[in-house]
């Protein structure tokens, strides 16, 4: 009798994309007193018990919050992204972008998903996208918030997944 084993589940290319562990993420922009990053937020979460959050202080000028991590992708493979995003208030004045960048993160190669201020709500919303790697190389997966205005607000990200299509 022949027994078939199920194919192994695809591996998330993102380290700590569910924010339940530690590590993986590097803060790229700071603004002391204006931006507060947390990669183990326990107040709001989609799955598990933690999420990432970026809080903007009241009275802050317009800032871009940005964090990322390196990923190695293989030429010609399609990578599917999915994730969840939430804001502390509706129409908070910021957009949230998820994108694949160059190894330094300095260039956006493809925006996987962008959630505009008008679409951000105080409830979790799903986003998705894909990227086909042009070469086997080092890339970055980036999360960037672009904000205007001076109101206090917090953004939450959780269950970020980047997997190669079988």
UniProtKB/TrEMBL annotation:
An example molecular function term from Gene Ontology annotations: hydrolase activity, acting on glycosyl bonds
SUPFAM superfamilies tied to this protein: Galactose-binding domain-like
InterPro entries cross-referenced by the UniProt entry: CenC_carb-bd, Galactose-bd-like_sf
Signal peptide stretch: none
Domain CBM-cenC positions: 12-142
Key words, A-Z: Hydrolase
Gene3D superfamilies on file: Galactose-binding domain-like
Protein name from the UniProt record: CBM-cenC domain-containing protein
Lineage, opening ranks: Eukaryota, Fungi, Dikarya, Ascomycota, Pezizomycotina
